[in-house]
## 1
Amino acid sequence: MAEVRYEGVYKLFGDDAVVENLNLHVADGEFLVLVGPSGCGKTTSLRMLAGFERPTYGRVWIDDAVVNTVPPKARDIAMVFQSYALFPHMTVRQNLAFGTKVRREPQQEARARVAEVADLLGLTPLLDRRPAALSGGQRQRVALGRALMRRPKVFLMDEPLSNLDAALRVQMRTELGHLHRRFGITTVYVTHDQVEAMTMGDRIAVMSEGRLQQVDTPETLYDNPATLFVATFIGSPKMNVVQGRLTTDRGEGAVVECLGVRLPVDRTRLLSGAREDVLLGIRPEDIAWRAISDGSGVCLMAEVDLVEPMGHEAYVRVLVGATPLVTRFPPRSGVRSHDQIELILDSSRIHLFDPTTGVSLLAPASGSAAAAARTPGYGADERRDDKSREIIESIRSPAGRTVSVRRRSDN
Ligand code: ATP
């Protein structure tokens, strides 16, 4: 087992930075999920940890060693890819045992390990089949089994479940969770699927356009997103975002006006630098329908645009004037398109963001896990040590920004 650390890591392809100043610490035995939309730099970050790409600047650590120049096979990592990467001409048994042959391990021990791993993953009846005679889920289990043949310091997984159908994905998520609890091997797991991230990660690192946005537990990311990007990326249906106007009264508190209503804001949570024009976010489940108002909610009239039944609930798309919102309704509510309904906004559950930077303007509510841990912030896991670096050049970031790159003088 091992801890992993990215320290001021950049990856440039040509002039373009696809990973920008990545600072991330993965604790010993942790299951960390790296999530973000396609092209945000997840795989590149993982490949730098695996040793398939070298950081342009910065350092990657495994335990106490900088591994920037250490070849993949000397890093004691095991990687599982989306594309299984099995040898088609070999049986499951041979695929599992392949690494032990390359490493010239004693074959008696290797046979025992194959039996153990096959048993663990339910592959024993399939040991003599070739990959072509396996289902997608079985192939994925062989790929996992191959990684499990060793107890590596770190597991790296790159979208390992993407080729599976929905039911198998759910099953494999659970199995991976069991395996991780059993062996406790530090794992970095890449996915673009926020549901996978939320259900699997001890912590989740959210990336966008090459930059780490926030790293925290699933609950904190959901309840206290540090940026508008995290707020709208995590959660389905997405958080509603509307324009608002924030006013603060001397002594009295703060109010945000939006959709024709005034919502009270807990002034003690307002971070310094909050401006008048804000973006207000509210999750669909924090908009109640015909809820009995206990005084904390604020009422507004809406017209139902579309009802999307999901079985256990329905997503109801409504229009407040011309502004669309999504709410969650109980099943069999009977509500239909064009119905006029009353909605209650839970003002204690709103989020406020700076419209220019997207950074949250509210500190976590007191008593929340995030408040107990720390106040979230942009790139919350960043550690800076500017004294030992010098600016050497400007680069173009994926978002088209020009960024000054600093390099450690001892790099
Ligand atoms: P996906 O979920 O689609 O795999 P990702 O978040 O894993 O996306 P990366 O594969 O890390 O993203 O790619 C990040 C960016 O780097 C992309 O714009 C990609 O086109 C670019 N990129 C990746 N590898 C190379 C390369 N070898 N040369 C040039 N550009 C590259």
## 2
Amino acid sequence: QIQAFVFDLDGVITDTAKFHFIAWQKLAQRLGFDIDHEFNERLKGVGRMDSLNLILQHGGVILTDEQKDKEAAQKNDEYVELIADMSAADLLPGAREALESVRGAGLKTALASASKNAPAILARLGISDLFDTVVDANLVVNGKPDPEIFLKAAAQLGVSPNACIGVEDAVAGVQSIKNAGMYAIGIGDARVLTRADAVIDGLHQFDVNRFIVKD
Ligand code: BG6
Ligand code: MG
């Protein structure tokens, strides 16, 4: 019997990829190269430092750990400035309704986000109170596809992982859910999210009754 849903944030509830792209592109240009939207796809669901390493590899640039910390901090400052204007208008279609329908069905909700900015974004979107618990990148050691973040969300809810359903848009995120032993709903393209148990275009297609067993 399903007892909880664990949602990813970026790409599921709101589209922050465009803001990350702007800030990463500025960083790349500071270092003398460009990234494009196709490359940006590879950064979805990937944590800050892992993203930076992928970008540096893409540009053929080698930095010291100290330089990396400085560049990552500057990228984040720029990103934080870009998300400062976010509001409920930045919720993806059906996101609020999906969260409300899960709670309305008597189930719990958790957030499992690779972003350290997740709590601030939830506050801007006006949906902090729709989550029973939040796990962000500050609280875990291993990034997706490691199951740690989804397992921690289940533990904080006090629900067994196999009674949870995870919702993710990134390949690494779906892998993280499956590695945690949960049912996985993918958001996006079924040909890309091959490990997902079900795939929908977006939360506007989410129907809680399709996924929970009723007695
Ligand atoms: C993920 C995003 O949710 O969080 C990635 O999909 C992002 O694009 C990562 O790099 C880390 O975010 P932050 O806010 O901690 O830099
Ligand atoms: Mg995502």
